[in-house]
Write a structure and sequence with these properties.
Strand content: under 5%
Structural class: mainly alpha
Order of helices and strands: HHHHHHHHHH
Number of helices: 10
Radius of gyration: 15 Å
Helix content: 55-70%
Number of strands: 0
Largest sheet: none
């Protein structure tokens, strides 16, 4: 196993049983989102993006507010040395995708969980028309929108009983072949 993947697995082992205002824990949510990406027939990079999209919550576990409201940026930056932009950019943009969908899709905001509504306000609220245009110009906007929809759907305990280790082949397929500094 690649050492960075072992680091990710260890982080989930240590912090993944935490909840964040939903009825499931971080591991359950991560594997459910990954399973939705697999069901949709997505490539390994987007499966990994779905699996790791909330890793910033785990990294910021001691600072609840910072972790909840900046977890997208924290996670993307943490993963960037080891994964391509096809993995990290949807993660970086998934909170923005929520802001976008709330602004443009009728009924989307009403369907959010209480925790998602709370974080929406702290992540900038609804996107303005100019923010929407800018967001849609990003080459990873559509992947981020897919990820955001899996994020919404991946909160049902029956969806997947797999653990993080079940997704090791996807992680190994998506990781960049880099050397970890000693």
């Amino acid at each position: 196993m690649h050492p960075f993947i072992q680091q990710i697995v260890s982080l989930f082992d240590a912090q993944g049983s935490q909840t964040y205002g939903e009825d499931i824990n971080q591991i359950e949510h991560a594997v459910q989102c990954a399973q939705l990406a697999i069901i949709a027939g997505e490539p390994s990079e987007l499966v990994v993006s779905a699996l790791l999209h909330d890793i910033g919550h785990l990294m910021a576990a001691t600072d609840i507010a910072f972790g909840n409201y900046k977890h997208d940026l924290i996670g993307a930056e943490f993963l960037a040395p080891y994964f391509s932009k096809e993995v990290t950019e949807p993660i970086r943009l998934h909170a923005q995708a929520k802001r976008y969908l709330c602004a443009v899709e009728e009924g989307y905001l009403a369907g959010l969980s209480a925790a998602s509504v709370d974080s929406l306000h702290n992540q900038g609220g609804l996107m303005s028309a100019s923010e929407q245009q800018s967001f849609l110009q990003d080459p990873f906007a559509q992947a981020a929108i897919k990820l955001r929809r899996w994020d919404d759907e991946g909160k049902v305990q029956e969806l997947s009983k797999n653990g993080i280790r079940h997704y090791l082949p996807y992680l190994e397929a998506a990781i960049l072949k880099v050397t970890i500094p000693a």
